[in-house]
Amino acid sequence: MSSPRFLLGFLLFIACLLNLISVNSDGKQTALFVFGDSVYDPGNNNYLNISIQDKAVYWPYGETFFGFPTGRFCDGRIIPDFIAMDAKLPLWKPYLEPGSQQFTNGANFAASGAGVLPETNPGLINLRLQLSFFKKVASQLRQELGEEEGKKMLMEAVYLFSIGGNDITYFAGNYPNATESEQEQFLQVVIGNLTEVIKEIYEMGGRKLAFQNVGPMGCLPLAKQVNGISGDECVESLSEMARQLNNALLKAAQVLENQLEGFKYSVFDYYTSLYDIIKNPSKYGFQVADVACCGYGSNNASHCGIEPYYVCNNPSEYVFFDGAHPCESANILFAELLWNGEPEITKPYNMKQLFELDSDYPSGTLYSIMNRGQTGGSLINFPTL
Ligand SMILES: *[C@@H]1O[C@H](CO)[C@@H](O)[C@H](O)[C@H]1NC(C)=O
Ligand SMILES: *[C@@H]1O[C@H](CO)[C@@H](O)[C@H](O)[C@H]1NC(C)=O
Ligand SMILES: *[C@@H]1O[C@H](CO)[C@@H](O)[C@H](O)[C@H]1NC(C)=O
Ligand SMILES: *[C@@H]1O[C@H](CO)[C@@H](O)[C@H](O)[C@H]1NC(C)=O
């Protein structure tokens, strides 16, 4: 057990005990709606008739925390699980899990393989489809709570996204000879479609939106393995595309803030934080960053759980559990930065601050603005990434 991470876990535990419950001005719990891909999927793909490779429904997925596979592409919990804990919300049930569900705490629509664009992995649950699920939930809530209360609840809620990585994989795979301007055009199409979805959520009441940007895709063990790269090197073209998408996302969020009254956002720089962990694993208590804990091939990076494959003895020594997804021990670090990070890494608000913002106030008079600094991360001092 690495002592820095153990200490962090302990501090997180204390932080949870001390944390104020995130409630609205009228005492109701603030809901969280989650959209995205495998980084955030709590098991929605389990309920699709798709290839086993797109569902993490087999051992050793889930081995560290749940003791059985849940559909999460991880040995344990994923980032939205920790965010739900921070926000005092229950553990995610996949939205698609059969049976009647209460959505007063929100819902998680994220689905592995999802892209912003429908042409990315057709047959999986792209962002538009996730939006259509949200619309159903929103109308159910307005019926249950009444039009007024329902709208208020949707306005107070926080909306969290992790999407775009699969669109990059799709483009790089299908257009290997694309020119720079074709690539730029494609990224504009991705951001254009994402912006449309954001605007629809805003029209339905959404005011507080959080985004985890796309990671350094060329440094994922699977990307290295597919491209025959080992050690420290990364597939620069993929990472470059991720950086361009992330820049465009930040710009789009800033534009939306100016266009839409009361729109508040948070962007967590997952790219930078994951990249720093990959480059300096020992700084964070990890030993291996270029090879996955579970899988097969030159970087043990493909088909974790499908024979033949290897699995490591101690996932917490590895940054990556499978070829594309971090271990739970890394997800703890990311969730802390998303929830409570300093503005260098999560800006302009972190998620804790978004939860505390009161959407009922006209923009500019949000009480929590005055509390910034006091509410942001004084308990845990994170190394600057
Ligand atoms: C699931 O997909 C397979 C292959 O596409 C198909 O043969 C089968 O009928 C489908 N099952 C259901 C329940 O839709
Ligand atoms: C990309 O270019 C290479 C040679 O430069 C060529 O062999 C290949 O067929 C091209 N791929 C596509 C999808 O056009
Ligand atoms: C959305 O994506 C489609 C391709 O799926 C594209 O034709 C369209 O122009 C995009 N919309 C925007 C606003 O960029
Ligand atoms: C893959 O995993 C096996 C079993 O843990 C290990 O022996 C092997 O060294 C790993 N491959 C690499 C490239 O580290």
Automatic annotation (TrEMBL):
The cross-references to Pfam families, in alphabetical order and at most eight, read:
Lipase_GDSL
Record-linked InterPro entries: GDSL, GLIP1-5/GLL25, SGNH_hydro_sf, SGNH_plant_lipase-like
As given in the record, the signal peptide range reads 1-27
Q: Which UniProt keywords apply?
A: Signal
The UniProt family comment states: Belongs to the 'GDSL' lipolytic enzyme family.
- This chain belongs to which protein, by name? GDSL esterase/lipase 1-like
Which species is listed as the source?
Hevea brasiliensis (Para rubber tree)
